[in-house]
Specification:
Blueprint: H1 14-33, H2 40-51, H3 53-66, H4 71-93, E1 95-101, E2 107-113, H5 114-117, E3 120-121, E4 130-131, E5 143-148, E6 151-159, E7 164-168, E8 171-174, E9 177-178, E10 186-191, H6 197-214, E11 224-228, H7 229-234, E12 240-242, E13 267-271, E14 278-280, H8 283-296, E15 308-310, E16 315-319, H9 329-332, E17 335-336, E18 340-345
Antiparallel strand pairs: 1-2, 2-18, 3-4, 5-6, 5-18, 6-16, 7-8, 7-13, 8-9, 10-11, 10-12, 14-15, 16-17
Helix pairs in contact: 1-2
Length: about 350
C-alpha cells in the first residue's frame, strides 16, 4: 500500500526565481522574434516548473509512488527532456547539418544556416506563407538550399525579385549589367576559325588550371574550351562563341513553350515578380508567368481584356556555376521565396 507523503510548502528561492525568469524572458523574446509562437506555452510551463519548488516536489512524489524512479533519476530525465527540446529548437530554427544533392548529382554534407534567411512556414499555401525573422536577406551570389521538383538542391541565388535577368552567350546579365564575376561560372565555348595560336595556348593553360583546382578532367576537344564566362567576355570574346546558338530551342528549359526559343546559354530576358506586384494579363504574360502561378500559387491565368493579376509570392533566379548543368531556374523556372529552404555555409 502506497504511503502518501505530506508536502510542505516552501517559499520559492529568490535566486532560482530570478534566474528562471531571466532565462525565460530571453527565450520568449527569441521565439517571438522568429515567430515561433506555438512554443511559448511549453516554455512558460518549463519556467514555472523550474522556479517552483512545490511543482517539482509534487511531480517527484507522484513518480515515486508509481515507479521505481527516485528524485535523482527524475532530475536527470527532466534534464534530458529539456536538453532534447533545446536541441530540436536549434536544429529547426538556428543551424544544422544536411546532406544536399548538388547539380552534378553528387550528395555533399553542408552546414545549413537557418537564421540568415529565416525558416519558411506554411509553404503549401501562398496566401498564408511567411518566413521567420532573419539576420540577413537573400542576396545575389548566396549559396542556398532550394526545393525543386528533383528534391532539395544546392545552388546559387543569381537575381532577386524585381530584377530583369537574362543569359546571353552563357553570361548572366542582371538589369542590363553583366553579373558574372570571378572564376566560378564555367561554360563551354567554341573556337573561331583562324584564332591566334598564342590565344589557343593561353586557353589550354587556363583549362589545365581549372581541372587541377576542381580535380576534374574536361571532355572538351581541341575546338572547344571550358573556361570562366567572365574571362571569355573580357579576354577571349573575339576568338570564341557560345557552343549553343540563340535560336536553338530546348524543350527542357522554362517556360517549356516553343514561342520562347530559350536554352541553357540563351535564356530570358524575364522580370522576376515581387509579392504584391500586379501585371496586365496578355498572351505573352500568361505564357511566361502562367506555369509559375499554376504550380506555386494554385491559380490558373487566362487572357481576358482588362484583367490583371497580383502575385502572392516573390520569385528568385537560381543558377549553377557550371552552365552546362541546367538543374536551376533555367529548367524549373524562377524559384518562389517559399521554396528557398536555407543558407548554405561552406563545409
Amino acid at each position: 500500500m502506497a504511503i502518501s507523503r505530506k508536502i510542505k510548502r516552501r517559499p520559492i528561492e529568490k535566486g532560482r526565481a530570478a534566474k528562471g525568469l531571466i532565462i525565460g524572458a530571453l527565450l520568449a523574446a527569441a521565439m517571438i522574434w522568429i515567430r515561433a509562437y506555438a512554443m511559448l506555452i511549453p516554455l512558460a510551463l518549463c519556467v514555472w516548473a523550474y522556479i517552483s519548488t512545490l511543482a517539482f516536489s509534487l511531480l517527484a512524489n507522484w513518480v515515486e509512488r508509481r515507479t521505481p524512479i527516485g528524485r535523482k533519476w527524475l532530475s536527470w530525465v527532466l534534464g534530458a527532456v529539456f536538453g532534447a527540446a533545446g536541441a530540436a529548437f536549434i536544429v529547426t530554427f538556428v543551424v544544422s547539418l544536411a546532406t544536399v544533392s548538388s547539380p552534378d548529382g553528387e550528395s555533399r554534407l553542408y552546414i545549413v544556416d537557418k537564421l540568415h534567411f529565416g525558416v519558411a512556414c506554411d509553404t503549401a499555401d501562398a496566401a498564408s506563407y511567411y518566413r521567420t525573422h532573419q539576420l540577413g536577406r537573400i542576396s545575389h551570389g548566396d549559396k542556398a538550399m532550394v526545393h525543386t521538383p528533383m528534391g532539395p538542391l544546392a545552388t546559387r541565388i543569381a537575381a532577386r525579385p524585381g530584377d530583369t535577368v537574362a543569359i546571353v552567350d552563357a553570361a548572366l546579365f542582371v538589369n542590363g549589367e553583366m553579373a558574372d564575376h570571378g572564376e566560378r561560372a564555367l561554360a563551354v565555348f567554341k573556337l573561331r576559325p583562324r584564332a591566334p595560336y598564342t590565344i589557343v595556348r593561353q586557353m589550354r593553360e587556363r583549362m589545365a588550371e581549372i581541372e587541377e583546382d576542381t580535380h576534374t578532367s574536361s571532355v572538351c576537344d581541341s575546338a572547344t574550351f571550358r573556361i570562366p564566362v567572365a574571362e571569355r567576355e573580357e579576354k577571349w570574346k573575339a576568338y570564341t562563341y557560345a557552343s549553343i546558338l540563340p535560336n536553338m530551342d530546348d524543350e527542357r528549359v522554362f517556360p517549356w513553350n516553343t514561342a520562347y526559343l530559350w536554352n541553357a546559354y540563351h535564356w530570358g530576358p524575364i522580370r522576376l515578380p515581387k509579392s504584391g506586384e500586379t501585371i496586365s494579363l496578355t498572351y505573352a504574360n500568361v505564357m511566361l508567368y502562367g506555369p509559375l502561378v499554376r504550380r506555386y500559387e494554385k491559380t490558373e491565368l487566362r487572357v481576358q481584356k482588362g484583367e490583371t493579376y497580383t502575385f502572392k509570392l516573390s520569385y528568385y533566379m537560381t543558377l549553377n556555376d557550371n552552365r552546362d548543368i541546367i538543374a536551376d531556374s533555367r529548367q524549373f523556372g524562377p524559384t518562389p521565396e517559399s521554396h528557398i529552404i536555407s543558407h548554405i555555409l561552406k563545409l
